[in-house]
Design a protein that fits this description.
It contains one helix and 17 strands. The protein is globular. Strand 3 (54-62) and strand 4 (68-73) form a beta hairpin. By secondary structure, the chain is mostly beta strands. The N and C termini lie far apart (41 Å).
Length: 281
């Protein structure tokens, strides 16, 4: 199972308050553009009196072209600190504690190979004719395993990923639901690829993305030989300001155990609240 709050990584895109998909083409270039400049996160905000309460914040830095050049975090359990290095055919994230994360790019600037934790986790990505990711093959040298993920889309949204691992026929299914809003990536949790352990999904480098904003994820993991495993449900609640910018996101996580012949047992429920600040042109 993915580490719960310790794996909460931060990804930023340029937020367009009047999204170009929702305004006339002639007005699109004049749409008001806002960049997230800081964020804070509180883990289990209703449990401040015990060890289940954590908080952290991050400041986002941009270059002269408004590309993210780095994130500085007060606590890496909330957000990860990193700097971005761009070279021809490659994007490198220099992290504070985990070395360099490598993204090799094709001629269209899409990630076709990623490498994390000094090469211990590697993945190759393929794209379909429409520009969406069609499959991903991940190699984990920690467990000496290979997992193949197949992607399925409907109405311009990623709706399901099914995978099979080389370890004992272990299977995993990810099912996604969306609201009717145009997608804005705020944290990696709100990006469908996050649940494949692609630790930092940098917007703009993974081909065509889902049209709508993610509202829920159901992750089911099973050992096919025994029928046991776990199910994790994630739900997202967004708060917007009068301009339509997402200023807060609440993430609710419910983890259940699956065992043959008995009802699913809810082992843990936790939530985290993210708040965002913007600077607008």
């Amino acid at each position: 199972m993915k580490s719960q709050f310790f794996s909460l990584f931060f990804a930023i895109i340029l937020f367009t308050a009047c999204n170009k998909d929702s305004v006339p083409e002639k007005d699109a270039d004049n749409a008001k553009k806002c960049r997230i400049i800081s964020a804070d996160m509180v883990f289990n905000p209703d449990k401040k009196i015990n060890a289940a309460y954590y908080a952290g914040s991050a400041v986002v830095n941009y270059d002269e072209k408004y590309n993210v050049k780095g994130i500085v975090s007060t606590q890496d359990s909330a957000f990860r600190s990193f700097s971005v290095i761009t070279t021809p055919g490659q994007l490198t994230l220099r992290t504070k504690y985990n070395g360099d994360w490598i993204y090799k790019l094709d001629g269209q600037g899409r990630a076709i190979y990623v490498e994390f934790y000094n090469g211990s986790i590697r993945a190759n990505l393929s794209y379909n004719a429409e520009g969406y990711i069609s499959s991903l093959t991940k190699i984990d040298t920690y467990s000496n395993s290979q997992t193949v993920y197949i992607f399925n889309y409907n109405n311009e949204n990623l709706v399901k990923i099914a995978s099979v691992s080389s370890l004992g026929g272990h299977t995993e299914t990810l099912e996604y639901t969306y609201n009717n809003d145009i997608a804005v990536d705020l944290t990696s949790n709100a990006n469908p690829l996050y649940y494949l352990d692609i630790v930092e999904v940098i917007p703009g480098f993974f081909g065509k993305t889902s049209k709508n904003q993610l509202s829920g994820v159901k992750q089911t993991s099973l050992q096919t030989n025994y029928g046991s495993g776990y199910s994790v449900s994630y739900s997202f609640l967004y708060t917007k300001d009068s301009d339509g910018k997402i200023i807060s996101m609440k993430l609710i996580n419910t983890h259940s155990e699956i065992n043959p012949g008995v009802p699913n047992y809810v082992r843990v429920v936790w939530d985290a609240v993210y708040n965002f600040k913007y600077k607008c042109d």
